[in-house]
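Journal club prep — side note

Before the paper discussion, L.F. wants everyone to see what a predicted structure for a comparable chain looks like in token form. Sequence:
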Amino acid sequence: MKKLLTVLIICLLSACASQNKQSAEVDDPAMRSGGSGSQDGANSGNGSGFGLNPLRDPNNILSQRSVYYDYDSYTIKSEYRELVLAHARYLRDNGDAKVLLQGNTDERGSREYNLALGQKRANSVKNAMLLSGARDHQIEAVSLGEEKPRATEHGESAWAENRRADILYQGEY
């Protein structure tokens, strides 16, 4: 009788575990579109649990979606390299996932200059992701120039907030 009860409990726990895995797959856009499903790279180093989409988990680096730049620069700062690498790993491990990289600038400079600088910022993130394992067909890089400010004030703190590249996953744009 004890053996039967033990087997029944193991089967029940096993069924619960597979149900949790299915829930995690439904919450993950890459999984719905047929991605590889590996979240090891996405979850590495953060201790997040099963069932929570790493792209939406505030404790996961993948929930961070902006790379900020110095004035008149498109060089990725060292403090954002791990963020870009984590997104590249996620793309590598989820082959059907796609991102749109939007390069942004502050309001200073001509419209043409800002569009070119925004494109360089988006391309710098794209190139870093490609070097880290993402595939070209997964990434589109565009410039919004100064057209989509996050901060509308005028001054260094607002301008710093607007000098960025945003990472948007398919379904978010």
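L.F.'s comment for the group: Residues 2-169 form a domain with the 60s Ribosomal Protein L30; Chain: A; fold (CATH 3.30.1330.60). Keep this in mind when we get to the figures.
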